[in-house]
Amino acid sequence: MNKTNYKYGDIIELNINEVIPIDDSLSLELTYFTHKRPRVGGSTKATATVVASKNTISKDIYLSVRGINGKSEYKDGLSKAERFPPVIWEGYKFQLVERFKSNYGKSIKIIVLKKKKY
Predict the structure, then answer these.
(1) I want to staple 96 with a disulfide (CB 3.0 to 4.6 A). Which of 29, 43, 84, 88 is the partner?
(2) DSSP E strands: which ranges in 3-106?
């Protein structure tokens, strides 16, 4: 999945500590993982920290996956937007596209959309 010419809306795999250029002004780097230890039946949350850089501006973007401890994705009642809450920054929308599985601590898959100018 490692390619160099990503388009907005492509599924992008970010590997830990690897800078991925999206276009001439935007680049992304996955830097850190963390998770919340839930109570039995409580909410779960795992978060990946991505440094988004646009020209000379950088910002930590926190992309999370949420769930309910002990309930499957199909039975927890969460919508896609609740499970993978999007983050908006500098006219871009960032969103995870899948749960962290065997890739926890190694990589994530995201979609980046750019706000259209009218």
Answers:
(1) 84
(2) 11-15, 19-21, 26-36, 43-54, 57-68, 87-89, 92-96
